[in-house]
Amino acid sequence: MDHNILPLITCPRHRETALTVERIDRAVDGIIETGRLRCPQCATGYPISAGILDLLGQQWPGSIAQFVNVLPPAAWAYERTWRPLALSMLSGEQFPLERELALITELAGVDRGGLMIDVGCSNGLYARALEQARRRSGADGLVVGIDLSLPMLQEARQRARREDLRISFIRASAQALPFATGTANVLVMGGSLNEIGDIQAALAEWRRLLAPRGRGVMMSLAAASNPSGRAFQQFLGIGGLQFPTLDELNQHFARAGLHLRAQWQYGIVVFSVVQ
Fold this sequence. Notes:
By secondary structure, this protein is of the alpha/beta class. The protein has 8 helices and 11 strands.
């Protein structure tokens, strides 16, 4: 965890209260490996272990889909197997990672810098793309990856370190993002909306966090248009996955106070830009 992010992190229970440093046990080149933060309002302590800040402790996954994501084999396999092929399979056209990541970073406006958060980051694919784009642009900024799954975050951190990317990783809920109101210049999410649980609460957090000129970019999966696709999605719904129609997704945005600026759909893959 980059020490520069510490003044920005707030308590998940008191989201306008900055956490204070209780102790730093080990840090290398400004990267905190182990330590502990504390909320001055509720006195709750939060550990930093192996470079990851854990704000959730023993919280149990809320669905089968979330439970699968906390399994180490799923974290290991996610970007090695499924993720590089996912959008080509789901969109019905050639959609390699390079195309997806170029689209996300361009739409996000990374060159503006500031606080950039990958919500539901899994293996940190979008977070790494943001940091790489930030470096190329020369912009000042900090990139954070947030996820419920500790194994996913551990894999994400290993990948970031192999590429020498300075990204902070936090275990937290998408419905209680640990930053003060209006502090994020960029929010991104890659597919996690479909398994995140309370969609409306998660999007309300996007509205709360986005700075006045901030921008949110999301890739999500919409309801299938054919009977077999709908039947399969209904089966996946047993495990907690949700596939809103495009109209339902946009209604979620509107209810959260997010303004839809642009949107594209490829098969069931939807890219949305909100402010």
